[in-house]
Predict the 3D structure of the following.
Amino acid sequence: ANGLVKENVKVELANDINMQGVNGFTGVGTRTNPFKGTFDGKHHHIQNMVISSDDGNTGLFAHVTGGTSIKNLTIDKTCDVYGAKGWTAGVIGVVLKSNNRVELENVGNEANVTTEGPNAAGIIGVCEGSTIRMKNVYNAGTITGAKESAAISGWLTNYVTLENVYNCGEVVASGLDGANTFARFQVDKTIVNCYE
């Protein structure tokens, strides 16, 4: 873990993953070696994942890049994610800039996510420039952060499609855009049946 992955990997879970007792985990993928591939949770749960980082850029996946698909997965309410400096989420901390799409389908975050920095979110902390498509995605965790924090994503940039995406968790955000609690993005977006 922690970035030691090859490109175009395919992962399928056979069971729930209980991370009780796993210490020092800060997420799969690094900026120089991001996760790229397909992660199919097969409707299993990640349980007892505790991330506590003095930096940021944290989540189950710390860094991913275009060409990634994450589906059929729940980060359940036994998990807790903390990244002190921001860009922190339950599922993906950072989506790196790429010409390819990142897709999330049938994915849920129930973990509480906390940072003293910007861009806390349930699903994606920050997208630096890839196309994003989410379908049947939700956040139920409490999201606590500084400016540009939101339930689904702190920043999705352009070229975003959200379908059947919802939030039922609390967002405790301060500073700029603190009132924009669902998701933040630029102008080129398609939003269908999304609510909070």
